[in-house]
UniProtKB/TrEMBL annotation:
It catalyses: thiamine phosphate + ATP = thiamine diphosphate + ADP. Catalyzes the ATP-dependent phosphorylation of thiamine-monophosphate (TMP) to form thiamine-pyrophosphate (TPP), the active form of vitamin B1. One of its GO terms (molecular function) is thiamine-phosphate kinase activity. It comes from the Bacteria. Keywords: ATP-binding, Kinase, Magnesium, Metal-binding, Nucleotide-binding, Thiamine biosynthesis, Transferase. It is an enzyme of class 2 (transferase). Mg(2+) 2 binds at D45, D73. Mg(2+) 5 binds at D212. ATP binds at G119, D120, R144, S211. Mg(2+) 3 binds at D28, D73, D209. HAMAP family: TMP_kinase. The lineage of its organism: Bacteria, Pseudomonadati, Pseudomonadota, Gammaproteobacteria, Alteromonadales. This is Thiamine-monophosphate kinase. Its EC number is 2.7.4.16.
Amino acid sequence: MKEFDLIGRYFHSGGHQRKDVIVGIGDDCAVTQIPENQQLAVTTDTLIGGVHFLMDAPAKSVAYKAVAVNLSDLAAMGAEPAWISLSLSLPEVESAWLEDFVSGLYELTRFYSVQLIGGDTVRGPLAMTITAQGFIPPGTQLRRDQAKPGDWVYVTGSLGDAGAGLDILKGEIDASGEAREFLIKRHLYPTPRVAAGTSLRRIANACIDVSDGLLADLSHILTTSKCGATIHVDRLPLSRGMKETVTDEQAIAYALSAGDDYELIFTVSEEQKGNLETSLSSTNVKATCIGQLTGNTGQIDLKHNDQRYHLPEQFGFEHQF
């Protein structure tokens, strides 16, 4: 199938259509309109088969995850998503695979009122790059470098589920019933915390999403903000599926170091702590306080029932070049 036939058949229509897209798919460039009194947030992520997803993963989940990880980056900045572009590399054209891929792509873009506005298709190893754009009111963006000693550390949702789900699919741990289904779904279909991110804009001092693991991503906040942290591992939010599948120590290890959860880690001052529940009340997202920032730059101390807890050898996922 020729490139433009592929684009016309699978990507030219079917997604959400926004009024702020002047020219969409089908021309040399997309043309969009940025609303008044808004700034543009832009993020790009590449997912490669065999690295970021299993080669036999359902095509629907691959597309869903590719969109979700980019929307999660926007959420971590407090941005409201608007548009995405897609560069897709395919070893060959398989109609059934592409139909499922498009189904996953449009399922998420429709839900968040995001429009696919352009991109590229090439023949090559299975990989996809998405660039996502969204809006933030001036001066309200969430960053990594504004945390302060004394801030409380919170995380949305539950941690470690996606890592456990991946290990189930790889046959490294056993699970059954609802727990197995839940953990695998958390790996294949992550939930970007878009509503929580926009709600935190005037509450949180710093924010980042959990893509590489809690400790690894928290370390980015600590390094750029010149803080340390005390984290209470007995307070980590763990799902019922996780607790039913592995031991307490294994669950803590997943929660600390497994990536792909795409929950938000954020810090809140003592003064704003009381406003947090009200701010998140309309999002249906629970946030759990897991520790507090200190003045020891880059240092993370773990505690379990106020006793010192060992740090894992590896904080999380990191690409090797």
